Batch of 4 targets.
Target 1
Amino acid sequence: MGIPHKPETIEAHRARIDEATRPLWIVADVQQDVLKRGNAADTPGKHRRHVFDFEDGLRLIVSRDNLPMKLESINYDIVLHVSASFEKESPLWGMLSRDQKGFDRFCAIAAKRIGELLDAVVDEKPSLFTGKVAHWFLDE
């Protein structure tokens, strides 16, 4: 079982963002660990300091990552990686499963929260989308 959903205010999240971005995760090592140990692998999402939960069910996982590959839209090796998902049965639960408009709404909400958390302007279009998780790779 993962980390339980524990909503906090944006102020509480901001107070601990430095703790989430201090360690550098070597993504190639994390990927190897996932291949070897599957769900038992050590990932940022398994550490409370990287997890930021909101009342509406939104969960952001924030980490500072060294990417093992170059992505077309990314011009740097070390990124601030923010992934966005939502708790099952939460107010946001149905947004992705319905249609493209729902996905766009979810990404807009997530980008706005990421911007509030990091005090930055964040594009509503994620860098990558896997399953029901949207990922943003931001210049640190």
Target 2
Amino acid sequence: MANVSDLVAPLQLMCRMVGPAQAQLALVEAMKKFMIDTGIFNDHAQMEYQAGVPEYIIDIPMSRIIVSVVNVSVNGVPTTQWARDGIYNNIRLFEEYDDRSCIDVEYTWAINGVDDCEIPDEFLSRFQMPILDGARMYLHRMYGSQMIDPTVAMLAQREFENAIADTKARRIMNFSNSRPVLRSGKMRRRSRASARRFL
């Protein structure tokens, strides 16, 4: 996997006045929002069932937070008889199973932003531009920044939120199509490429 710092240099090429620490902070905020809102990054955690023990900790890497639990299965069979404790990342099973059965938990996740944490490789390829848009949105409205510009922040926010909505819609439709975008006849149409010239 890549690291947050891998995107600092591309962001500094677009925002030349920003320092590495400030750039990394903005990137982390953009990545967290993208991952939480789209829910496209998922993984599995497995644990062994123990007779008489209803609650189990979902063991995840320290650099992650759980956004949602998508599915729970026992020995490959999905079950709906469970609940999640979102505070402690626990799940509780309401049925009993054979001892040492395999519990599989599918979850969506986001980075927690601690230090230079690992990020999905997709942020260096297919999602790089949306993340840079999101980081610029934060930079141009960040308190204490020398780059505060409400107009540029608004343009970057529009591109960022459009990418989030499109990615989320494609996930819902199994990535087979993009969401339909409605445009007002009174609005001046501008491509994403031309819009970014103002950023």
Target 3
Amino acid sequence: MTLLSVVIGKSFIEKALLLVLAAAISGFLLPLIFKYIDHQRSERISLKQAKMELHSDVAETVLRSMTLALDISYLGSKKTKDEEMQAMAYARYNERIADLMADWRVAFSKSQTLTTSELSDELQSLQAVFFGGIDTPVMKSWSNCKHDCEWDRIHAESLRYLAEANSFIKKLAIDLELSDPDLFTTVR
């Protein structure tokens, strides 16, 4: 057997083709596959970060809005009546509420792409509840009140709305797959 017969032999050509094919795969196809996998992982991470940011923004905006309003009714209630502190709470609320409402709108806009339409609609409803059930009564009571206001009733109602908001925030975390739904069930 000569060198020429080995080189042109069927076995040698097959092995050479396999070697070239292996080099092409490891040099070209594998980097493409790894790049695709990295891209997919990066997209999942970006989506998860966007969901975490939405949840954080919603929780902060909703709870901050409600807490600022609750401060006014709490400081006006019979149990904790403090007119000076209540006036400061009212001024603080008025100073920040316009920015917080803009934050609600931004969060709603983001929620339309990151959550279900039901949850997005529920966030919008929560904003309407805030205005109708908390903001409007607080503003009316503040404007019309001389000595005997309905701060105790307004505060109790606001606390009920706060509980609804907390429930929504938990539901949002579950929908965004940021929390285990079993964490929010009661163990018996």
Target 4
Amino acid sequence: MAALNHFAFAIKLPSLDSMGRWFLGITDYRHYGLFIAAVLICFTIWRRRRYGSWPGHEDYVAVVTSIVAILGATTTGIVFLLTKPPAVELLPSQSLLLIGLFLPIVVYSYALPRLRGLFLPPEVEEKPPKDEPSADENGPKEA
């Protein structure tokens, strides 16, 4: 058992900082573009096989904005959570554009309608009062 503990401490695992910096070093707008294109192709094939119809333009826009949000959030998380100090200098300028422009648009377009719906829910329609049951529904009245 002691040999196993000694072996575990002998393995040098990379730190989160070094893994984050490595990931930021390999990210590029071309990788993002290839990833988005691959997701769109998979989405098109999946939708065609599963539902028997082609996706609409709105579906493609929703998929692209969702993927851009995921990529931006992942990159932002890696920069600010894994690297100490934050390795903003390792981001390509195109990634800064992606994060600075698209991420707030996607976040606000999701968050603001959601908050509006929570603070100002749609009015609940009142049900019309029920009419009193007719004599036919209650059966014949005895005289």
